[in-house]
Amino acid sequence: MSTNINDRIALPPKDAQKSNMTCHFCIVGCGYNVYKWDANKEGGRAASQNALGVDFTRQVPPMGITMTKAMTNTITDKSGKRWNIMIVPDKECVVNSGLSSTRGGKMASYMYAHDGIGKERLKNPRIFRGDQWLDTGWDNAMALYAGLTKKILDNDGPSGLFYDCFDHGGAGGGFENTWGTGKLMFSALQTPMVRIHNRPAYNSECHATRDMGVGELNNSYEDAQVADTIFCTGANPYETQSNYFLNHWVPNLSGATVDKKKKWFPGETAAAAKVIIVDPRRTATVAICEQVAGKENVLHLDIEPGSDTALFNTLFTYVVEQGWHDKAFIAKHTRGFEEAVKTNRMSLEDGAKATGIPVAKLIQAAEWAYKPKASGHRPRTFHPYEKGIIWGNDNYVIQSALVSLVLSTQNVGRRGTGVCRLGGHQEGYTRPPYPGDKKIYIDQEVINGKGLMYTLWGTNPFQTTLNAEQHRLVLSRRAKIVNEAIAKARGASVEQLIDVIYDACKNKGGMFIAAMNLYPTVISEEAHLLLPATHPGEMNLTSMNGERRLRLSEKFMDAPGSAKPDCLIAAEIANTLKAMYLRDGKPEMAKRFEGFDWKTEEDAFNDGFRRAGRPGVGPIDSQGGDTGYLATYALLRKAGNNGVQLPIKRVEGDKLIGTAMHYDDGKFDTKDGRAEFKPAPWNGLPKPVADQKAKHKYWINSGRANEVWQTAYHDQYNSFVRDRIPMAFIEMNPEDARQLGVNAGDVIEVFNDYGSTYAMAYPLKSIKAGQTFMLFGYIKGVHGDVVTNWVDRNVVPYYKGTWGSIRRVGSVDDYKQTISFKDRRYA
Q: Which of 129, 300, 325, 499 is the Cys-Cys partner for 408 at CB 3.0 to 4.6 Å?
């Protein structure tokens, strides 16, 4: 039998190995089943002859199973044996109920095969010498990396060591890997010079909500099924949290969950949900909601860019004036209400002027979300939000205004409510406390010539930071200084090479750049050392999704070459440094690098996640909390793709019992347990942003597209995605395009005082005049190049806030002949 099956989807035989997999990608964390079997075998079409238990001898019912060629692959293990794999959505998983996304549905395709999409994966450490990348071994790579780290630590202290590191779950993160990297950076090296993968400091994207006592993931996905109203701000969940939207929002919007509402909330008015969507752009989410719920149940508030705070303050003021606020809850469980009412006060007329939304629509939104129901009960309104306000105009103030509105109506801590970020990556944070000032603006430190060594751990600031052009130019210039020095160090030993590199960095302004990643991303254009990492399936990895659901993705295949889990790379670095300090007779320094004697990723999980909060253990910041010790790999395997919602309450037999809803006891995450209202005055646009708006005609908004995952690190090698989107697209108004002489598929330049970038024109009728929407973080055409350097008090960027000019560059005939420019919106 042929081992390369192209004419059909090979079915797994009854004896195929089966394991659990949480989708690597978006925060929803859909459950999948992995089947693995000998490549020379194949299951039969009868239900009794295949591991899926599906009868393929007759037509499978609609939605009976989701199965595509992209869900299959043929891999080879280290012994040379070939295996078929199939990764299909799990119908028993409560997250997705068998639904697949365009991201998760391609996971099998992304698993390493020498002739597959992942063939460009890093397989062994690489060092840049002269003008080319050369493979090397881990011993040599560690001698160089740890040796240079030690020299900088000894001579310049930990602040000479810069890191840009993931802080999330899913691919590239997870509780094992955040702990390994965090323990190395914060406990061992003790460097404060660390930024997070998509922002230029070591900080949260939700400072205000946490300061108010409200964690940003506080309900269950099921709550979206029983909300009376969904009030969605700055998010496009159909494209970016697809199966959360399809499996939990859509049934509510269609009326399919009315019986559940009657059962959960007897005596309350129950009907199909209404939805309010706050977004300057008419998105696919708006269009689909109108199809499902009817236009009469969908309110699209197409606000002026950056005016979210004014919107929330206006609604807050109106709700209090109408007496719709929950006086008893406010008195018993909160503080600061009167000051917020005073500071945040905004009339309907002033709110309409600031947001561009007519007074009648503002009143309609308030009535849908906050006016008592016919039964006299307070409505249950769910407030999901994401990057539109997280990366919006003054992150801290926007969130303060939103959560104040939510607290005033007690739309948190009750089933069918919640004020929750929708998220990008999955979560998976367990680290020692950060050892410095969280307001260090690392990008500016790099630009200003600070730091000697920069480690980019599973990140790519070239594509995802603000003021990206200047950052990239400076880093390139500093990297080249080191390149030139290395090129001249012919015949140098590792020790001699370290001295050469150190001199180039310390005395000539250079910067040594190392990167741990799956692929040699665009960062490799400037890096000097690359270390190969693994992703889920090649290692055991735990993450939690947007409803705090913890699952174990099980290892089922070998990693390519000598690639290692990030936590074990961190351990390798720490153990190498420990040995170096012991050789130097410095036991006190060696002691800082103890505790990394891990053989597996489970060792790292047990060392961090499961030790948090235990007696005698130092402080650990963990999303698992003090009960994380209850979670073992064995129990998580038994919990399967449904896992357990954190925090864990207890273990009953072999079942983990978790937490569905936070704050249902009225106790919030503050010292006294009372939620805190925050004053949030509306101050208009920040000056650097306002200056660009005054000089340039077009608002350059940005965000994700359904078919592209993040920086396209996998997708750049996938013709399904790359052929469709060869360059970052920019949606623009057709009349604006006509005036610029731009047609669909033309290459245009976007530029302002901060930089310039190219994009592929995509005219759409739904885009307002003077507004655009550009794909964020793509491999060709970097939106961040034109984003200002402005950040809020906590160094959170305003990625959404930039204006630019546009000019036509030219035409690429291939784009116009091979790419569809039909409206991406659902009709």
A: 325
